[in-house]
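Record type: ASSEMBLY
Status: queued
Input:
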Amino acid sequence: MKRTLFSVILVAAILLVGCNTKSAQTYAVVSSAEMKPGDAIPVPSEEAILTVSGRIGITNVGNTLSLDLATLERFGLVKYEVNDPWLGSKNLYTGVLMSEFLKFIGAASDASNIQLTALDDYQVNISVADIQKWPILLALQTNGEYMTVEFNGPTRIIFPFDDYKEIDQVAYKDLWIWNIKAMEIQ
Amino acid sequence: MNASPSSRRWRLSPAQIALGAVWSLFIIVIEISIAGTYLASQADVNTFSQAGDSVTNLANIQRQVLQLQVKTNIALNNPGAGFEDVKQQRAILASQVRVLLAQASGDKDILTAGDAISKSLSEFDAMLADLQRDALPEAYAAALPRFNDLFEQLERDQIKPVYDRAEIYFFNNISTRMQVQQRAQIFLLGMGLLFLVSSIVLIASTIRTSRASFENARTQVVSLEAAVAERTRALTASIDISRRLSVILDQNQLITQVVEQVKQAFDYYHVHIYLVDEKTQDLVMAGGTGETGKALLAHGHRIARGRGLVGRAAETRKTIFAPDISKEAGWLPNPLLPETKSEIAAPIIIGEQVLGVLDVQQNVVDGLATEDAEFLQSIAYQVASAIKNARSYTQAQQKIAVESIVSSIGQKIQNTTSVERALEVAAREFGRITGAKDTRVTIHMHK
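Status: finished
Output:
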């Protein structure tokens, strides 16, 4: 009886480890966070590249949170390689996990959607559920290089298509927004 | 009695096996069709998505070029405003062109358009650099038509034709794919209907087979029950006839009883018994059923040994069975029995001696079966034994009668007192016994 119980627990543990291994293998940590969720975020000392509004707990310019590149990097960086469906090549992207990003900006616990706006005012919506489910990246670098506007920067959204085959690659392709200038937490 | 029907096995007919094979083939074809349709639809999705992306990218580029033109016009009309917005818009356009070229997948038109846009942007950069280097705000307005010409030429000659072509291809693609999908759906619908019909036919056929098998099994059980009942009746009749025969000591009465009881037991058309004439060895009819039997008996009907079924039975000492007399060589028709269709002649044998033949006739082809032959042979054996008993009894009775008469005459003779009286008594008694009109005793005296 004890042996059977032990075997069941062992199999369950292996399965659970297997489940965790997938996300652990998707990305590698580049740098740990230099601040904690809930910490105040000062007004950017450099050029602001992203403005966050909506249901957030941390603000620094009126009701919005203005972020420069240096501040974003303090949230901690990870990286992973993925086939970019728009650029048609496999690239290494480095940036902030969106799930961590939501913690640092103090997003409301019941927030369900994020509306992202590009420099040309193109907009998409990404659900918070997807962000919690997959390691979606707010990329700051492509192949180790910061991204200019001409190269789809300064930030863009990356989905882990290669490791998560359950993601509908046709439907989600349009959510790979680049030239992001603003986010609204809803 | 009738023979039991041959048993049948429950198995699929060749038609059902063929139907099953066709049904299986349908399933395979449907599976292949569905798989093919799925793969085709996957390819369609990819093609459709790619064509849609090209149209979207080109539309974006059109919009970005227009935005660049607007922002350039604003900057040139407002010399103090600077060119930051223009440069950002130019970068956004460049990023979109970069994506367009990455997505072109070898499409020459798009690659050509992308290169043309890149060259136009280089020309735009040069013109803008000249203006900024000269730093002459009054020259901005004068430069505006050249910029607008550049944008309009780019839009008219490079972007719009490619966009139109991509758009037409996209919608043609949708139309074609929809037609293909529709045809596939109609095909699958047709296959589905065929599948449904074949399934219904197969199920109905299986149900029919099951029902037929069940009916066969039921019929077989009923037939077996009937056969057992018939067998029981035969045994009962045989025992009954045997019991009756054992107490009949008169041969004629015996024969009459046998033919009537056998006929009644199984509702035969006609039954009669022939006995062997010791002198001629012919088979002389000794008794038969009904009026026909009486008529044949009165007529002194007889059959030579070896002729007909009766004669053959006596000759071979074996039961002769003719389920269909029309196929029986040497069969002798009897005008008084016109309906006879089948016949069994069982020899009445005791030891090596043939006493006669028990003959049974039925008015239906195959109306008599092997079981009847066995039953009648068993009756014939019992009849033989009974006839022998009756004959022995008769012979014993006759012997006793003769001895009684002799004893009576002897006694009367002894009571006489003279030779003449003794001879007179002897002559009178002998005449009385023999029924002679005149009886004399003659004494010859020898010298």
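Annotation: The first helix of chain A runs from residue 2 to 26.
Annotation: Chain A touches chain B at residues 86-89, 119-120, 122, 148-152, 170, 173, 178-179 (CB under 8 Å).
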